[in-house]
Amino acid sequence: MVRYPLKFESWKNYKVVTADLKRVYRSATEDEALLELERFAET
Fold first, then answer.
1. Model pTM greater than 0.90?
2. pLDDT of 21
3. Higher pLDDT, 4 or 20
4. CA distances from 8 to 12, 25, 30, 43 (A)
5. Can you tell me the distance from the alpha carbon of 32 to that of 37, in angstroms, rounded to the nearest whole number?
6. For residue 13, what are the CA distances in angstroms to 18, 29, 31, 37?
7. 42 or 7, which is more confident?
8. CA trace torsion 7, 8, 13, 18 (10° rounding)
9. Of 6, 22, 25, 26, which is closest to residue 14 (Cα–Cα)?
């Protein structure tokens, strides 16, 4: 699931995007994950 969005990113942005995605996947609750996903979508 994480690999697919990374196919569309350049190597220069790889670390930034993976750091943002880690916040989504490491969230403790579903509400927190949805909030992080919204933040990810804004960037």
1. no
2. 87
3. 20
4. 12, 19, 26, 14
5. 9
6. 9, 27, 27, 18
7. 42
8. -50
9. 6
CA distance 42 to 25: 17
Phi, psi of 11 (to 5 degrees): -65, -30
Contact between 20 and 5 (Cβ < 8 Å): no
Phi, psi for residue 28 in degrees, rounded to 5: -80, -35
**Helix (H), strand (E) at residue 23:** helix 14-25
- The residue behind tokens 């697919």 is 4
Q: Which two tokens stand for residue 2?
A: 């994480």
Look at residues 32, 4, 2 and name the one whose alpha carbon lies nearest to residue 19: 2
